[in-house]
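Exercise 7b. Backbone tokens:
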């Protein structure tokens, strides 16, 4: 359709109602390359302009701007909004409108809240099917250079757009509209030049430019466009793939599917996780389940032995050494107390990531309060000279009680998951293998009323349990070594780990999007991991120091503190960068960061820490883990267990997280990997 016929259409339709708008449409339509096609009913259908076009206000926006001074959308309205940095539109809900900045605060279905300008918001109707109206809408990608001849004035129009005559039946859009289904907006796959890593300033330039179209005379806008295009050319750009390669890819049908946006079902942007067998399937799960509890008792036993060298293992355990009902009673009481604190209506409510149903669960964020209450309780018990060393003296029995409870919990979780709907199950939980699903967990978010079992176990039981056992070790060291105050090694280990836990509890909200809370089922792995492994195995360094005093010099201590601080800075700033970016990719404080637009909507950070390696937070975590082992000296390998374990756990986690990301981001993830080739440590891994 050439510009004249387009113009005629606009005049015949819109101008009947709005003359001012028509002029604007006329001028604007001759400038921009947006292809507007008429359906049989004469209504316009957004038929897939190029991403470049989408970054400008549409004709209807301009009309709306001229016609309506107030906000076009009201609070609570559903609409479609362009995801910043991409050309994809996702369903949103309007939260509020700020008349000062003229920005809407919107909520995407994936839980992201951000401020968006009106021109990036479209009514849902545009994306809805018009029965019998839609002529097969195919879009054609045109190169940016061809679309704009500098010397042309708007009224001169362009040479007729050559629409390729492809078989309508072969288009996925056509197939769907023939069925009378939801109209699929077929967005233009990004061209290589679109794969520039945009700085926020670059994006600002686009925004400024779009604004200019609305406010300035058209010719001036043309001039501005030329300047802008020059700027883009001069910009430091990164190309991820070769032009040829890219076009070969985008012709692939599967790739094109990614660009078909179906606005109706809310789960559209929640990636469908294909089940993947992890941990070596049922055999691996069996081995882990059978080996982890004995490994823990072995480690605890070695810590309590005078000679902690690994091969010096002569257990002479009786059943009583591992089991005492009273200890189980105390442990159950401890868990009940933590549950009580978990349920206290103190602290803000946060929302988890959207589920397959589109719903977001709410979580009470009160881990810090719970830790504070436990601290007060411990102080009171110490004041009344209650023998807290009982815990140290019965450490094996406590670990056994925790193990039993984790098994009971896992069995309960497995049984109740049989009543759960498919949508409530994790990807791994859909497997039919009993052992594997028992281990991985079936139900994603098992809850009893408001009590979220998985969240409670990861935050309250694991983290508070960990610092509590550490503190018990500190008391035990003073008692056994007859010290007036704990050793420098013990203080540093306790302080480092307490600080880590405080950080986790302070940033509890961001935990809601962690792999475990957001995507894993709740089964034996997490039940045992959180109730048993974290409190009892993560406190191994402190347990070791109780009977193996280590003198460290101030210089060594200083070096260890520096190493922990270094790890913490990486860990914290990497997590902060990602969390802030996920909350609002437009955050001006992140304007220096570059990102990759992705076809699924969420852009990927590609600079800062996330441009250094692909899992910078794991790097920080691993550095800290080794720093926590160093105060235990070099006499034994035992206290270094945590360093080895966490490094192994996180390396394995990389493959699990990346598998998810590859499913979600598809080729965009490969591009990110191409750009940031190392996972955790540059030039090593
Ligand atoms: N001490 C311990 O025992 C353990 C500690 N941890 C710590 O817990 C924290 C959470 O861990 P975990 O959930 O595994 O991992 P991450 O916090 O790293 O989350 C991974 C997710 O981040 C998003 N993402 C990945 N790359 C990018 C990018 N370039 N730009 C933007 N988003 C990106 C993706 O999610 P999406 O696409 O959904 O945004 C991905 O699935 C980490 O700090 C880890 O160190 C974890 C396990 C054990
Ligand atoms: C097969 C095998 C090695 C199983 C045990 C794994 C567990 C020890 C870990 C699985 C996921 C974990 C998480 C944390 C601790 C380790 C386990 C239980 C965690 C509580 C540590 C603190 C973090 O901030 C976290 C809350 C994100 C994290 C959640 C996952």
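Sequence design result:
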């Amino acid at each position: 359709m050439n510009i004249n016929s387009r113009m005629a259409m606009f005049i015949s339709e819109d101008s009947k109602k709005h003359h001012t708008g028509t002029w604007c449409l006329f001028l604007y339509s001759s400038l921009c390359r947006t292809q507007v096609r008429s359906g049989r009913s004469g209504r316009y259908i957004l038929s897939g302009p190029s991403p470049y076009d989408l970054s400008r206000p549409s004709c209807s926006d301009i009309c709306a701007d001229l016609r309506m001074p107030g906000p076009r959308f009201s609070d609570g309205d559903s609409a479609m909004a362009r995801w910043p940095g991409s050309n994809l539109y996702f369903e949103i809900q309007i939260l509020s409108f700020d008349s000062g900045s003229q920005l809407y605060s919107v909520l995407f279905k994936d839980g992201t809240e951000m401020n968006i300008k009106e021109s990036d918001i479209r009514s849902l109707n545009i994306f809805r099917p018009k029965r019998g109206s839609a002529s097969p809408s195919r879009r054609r990608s045109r190169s940016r250079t061809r679309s704009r001849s500098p010397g042309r004035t708007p009224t001169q129009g362009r040479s007729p757009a050559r629409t390729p005559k492809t078989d309508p039946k072969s288009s996925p859009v056509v197939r769907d509209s023939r069925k009378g289904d939801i109209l699929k907006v077929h967005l233009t796959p990004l061209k290589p030049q679109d794969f520039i890593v945009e700085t926020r300033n670059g994006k600002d330039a686009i925004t400024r430019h779009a604004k200019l179209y609305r406010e300035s005379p058209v010719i001036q806008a043309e001039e501005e466009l030329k300047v802008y295009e020059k700027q883009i050319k001069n910009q430091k750009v990164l190309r991820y793939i070769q032009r040829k390669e890219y076009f070969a890819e985008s012709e692939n049908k599967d790739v094109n599917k990614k660009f078909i946006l179906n606005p109706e079902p809310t789960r559209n942007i929640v990636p469908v996780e294909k089940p993947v067998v992890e941990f070596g399937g049922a055999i691996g799960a069996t081995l882990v389940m059978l080996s982890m509890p004995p490994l823990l008792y072995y480690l605890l036993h070695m810590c309590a032995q005078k000679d902690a060298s690994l091969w010096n293992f002569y257990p002479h355990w009786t059943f009583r050494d591992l089991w005492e009902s009273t200890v189980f009673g105390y442990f159950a009481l401890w868990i009940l107390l933590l549950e009580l604190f978990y349920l206290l209506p103190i602290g803000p409510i946060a929302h988890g990531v959207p589920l397959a149903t589109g719903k977001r669960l709410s979580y009470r964020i009160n881990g810090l309060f719970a830790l504070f209450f436990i601290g007060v309780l411990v102080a009171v018990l110490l004041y009344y000279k209650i023998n807290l060393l009982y815990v140290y003296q019965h450490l094996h029995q406590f670990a056994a009680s925790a193990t039993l409870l984790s098994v009971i919990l896992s069995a309960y979780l497995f049984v109740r998951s049989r009543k759960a709907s498919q949508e409530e199950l994790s990807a791994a939980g859909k497997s039919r293998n009993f052992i594997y699903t028992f281990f991985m967990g079936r139900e994603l978010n098992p809850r009893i009323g408001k009590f979220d079992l998985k969240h409670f176990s990861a935050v309250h039981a694991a983290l508070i349990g960990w610092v509590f056992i550490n503190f018990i070790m500190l008391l035990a060291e003073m008692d056994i070594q007859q010290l007036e105050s704990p050793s420098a090694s013990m203080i540093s280990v306790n302080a480092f780990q307490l600080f880590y836990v405080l950080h986790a509890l302070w940033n509890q909200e961001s935990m809601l999007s962690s792999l475990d809370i957001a995507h894993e089922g709740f089964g034996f792995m997490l039940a045992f991991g959180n109730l048993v492994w974290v409190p009892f195995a993560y406190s191994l360094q402190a347990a070791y120091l109780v009977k193996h005093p280590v003198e460290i010099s101030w210089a060594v201590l200083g070096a260890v503190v520096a190493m922990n601080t270094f790890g913490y800075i990486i860990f914290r700033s990497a997590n902060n960068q990602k969390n802030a970016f996920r909350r609002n990719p437009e955050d001006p404080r992140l304007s220096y960061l570059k990102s990759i637009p992705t076809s699924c909507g969420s852009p990927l950070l590609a600079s800062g820490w996330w441009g250094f390696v692909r899992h910078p937070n794991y790097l920080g975590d691993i550095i800290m883990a080794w720093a926590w082992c160093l105060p235990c000296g070099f006499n034994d390998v035992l206290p270094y267990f945590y360093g080895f374990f966490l490094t192994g756990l996180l390396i394995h986690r990389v493959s699990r997280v990346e598998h998810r990301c590859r499913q979600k981001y598809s080729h965009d993830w490969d591009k990110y990997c191409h750009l940031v080739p190392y996972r955790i440590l540059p030039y090593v891994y």
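Instructor comment: The radius of gyration is 30 Å. The pocket of NDP (ligand 1) is lined by residues 514-515, 575, 578, 582, 602, 604-605, 610, 615, 617-618, 621, 646, 649, 653, 657, 660-661, 664 (CB under 6 Å).
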